[in-house]
Amino acid sequence: MIIEALRGSSWMAALLLVASLVGVGTTLVIPDLTSSAVGALSDGRQGPVLALGIALTIGVVASATGVWTSAAVVARSAAAARRMLLDRLVSLESPHPRQFGNGDLVGRVISDAQTAGAMVPSVISACCGLVTAAGGMTGLALLDLRLAAAYTVTVPLATYLSNRNLRSVRVLFQQYRRAQSEISTRIVEALHGAATIRAAGTLDREVTRVLEPLPDLRRTGTAFWSTQARLVWQTAVLTGTLEVTVLAVAGVSVSTGRLTVADMVAAAGYVALAATLFRRTDVIGVMAAGTAAARRIADVIGQESTPLRSMAGAPLPAGCGPITLHQVTVLGEAGPRLDGITVEIAPGRLTVVVGRAGAGKSTFASVVGGLISPHSGEVRLAGVLVGSIRPGHLNRFAAYAFEQPRLLGGTVADAIAYGIPDGGSRAQVERAARAAAAHEFICELPLGYDTPLGSAPLSGGQTQRIGIARAIAQDARLVIVDDAMAGLDSLTEEQVLRSITEPSVERTALVITHRESVAARADTVIWLDGGRVRGIGRHGTLINQDDYRRLFARSS
Fold this sequence. Notes:
This protein is α/β, with parallel strands linked by helices. It has helices at 2-8, 10-43, 47-91, 102-117, 119-143, 145-152, 155-192, 194-200, 203-210, 214-255, 261-274, 276-279, 281-301, 361-368, 391-397, 412-417, 426-435, 439-443, 460-473, 490-500, 516-521, 539-542, 546-555, and strands at residues 323-332, 335-345, 350-354, 376-381, 384-385, 398-402, 478-482, 508-512, 524-529, 532-537.
């Protein structure tokens, strides 16, 4: 994650590193310059005092630059972590079920990515702290080896305390985030089931269920901050003892003539620098929390997903071309979603896929359009392997309309134009809406096509029609309608089917459906059962089989 973050903010991170190193350099020379300035005051010399002023000015500028660049690096690192998370979440779509609740995922994308993003400046700060501490110890050794020895005695204890608290903070942070995520997930579930909760009169019971993890959240939160507080006072006692011990040794050396008063001033500065390593409890806390957050992100990124295609590849073949699946198998947790499917989809025709729930229809549609790659077997478009086609070209080949489409964009027009590469024109948007029988109800919205999605009162069927319009607007060679006409009446269904099978448009239509009326219009029906092809043919032929007839009897 640190490497990915550095790729996205390389010059900013380099500037932060330079500013930090300049700050370390000025910090290390200030004790010696201070000692020289103290000695120069008695002589009336101005040079050492001027040098000290210049060093302090450089240190202030370096510190200000470090604060500014640190914030920028955190933002860019968090953005890199979010990008990695979202890329993987997209690849975790069907057939691989997600292992995390929606509220939990939102917490990982927003909070954990931000916390992990602070790791890069923290690592730089920790490394600079090590250099500063080493420089302070070196300065003490150059003044008097006994001063360095007095400092070294405290190092093992300080290291032990830091490591112990680091582990505790990391574990408690993970527990705290888990409890937060569980509450968030339950809130999202309750919001989705609000109507059911109201109808059942179970609001009090649902509130209790949602807040059930709250005691764990309080316990881990209290323990987390108690650990932080313990680390602070332990560090304060340790560094205070260290400074008193070193200065006591320095005082004895001054009394015996081994050191001068100016040397003791320098020793006071160097011991403060040497104690920097123990004072950075904030860095320890940030690194512990950042490590825990990064592990939560890694839990998602590490999930097995569909193999990702390279950005390189073959261009899209000319024309529609047949789509062939040969021995295609897609695995799921409970067994194969598709099991050795071999079938050919004719170009420019209407192909309908039917089957019981769980028969593999949506997985079949996802494989055909290249949303997912099969675990074995081949999918070819006009003889070219779909997996070898450049993703940008493949996205222009297939357009999807889903049963429960997520409308994206600011307005209704934006939602329809969402899949058009250049955003499209209003004429394209309206043409697609008319084809999906959506133009009339869109015009009745408060602002028509410019109605914000958040305030558009859309029913389930209207949302489906906008999703169909979005697919039609892309002008793709293959339109896949994945049960997206379930909420349409028969007249609207007829109009949509006419639009996606328009003879003047070179387009292949693949429709997943439970409706007999749609299957009856198909040029070819593919009947899936248990992830396998049970039958292929015209509806009028397949309807003679009892099991096929029962598919539509259940849905009627």
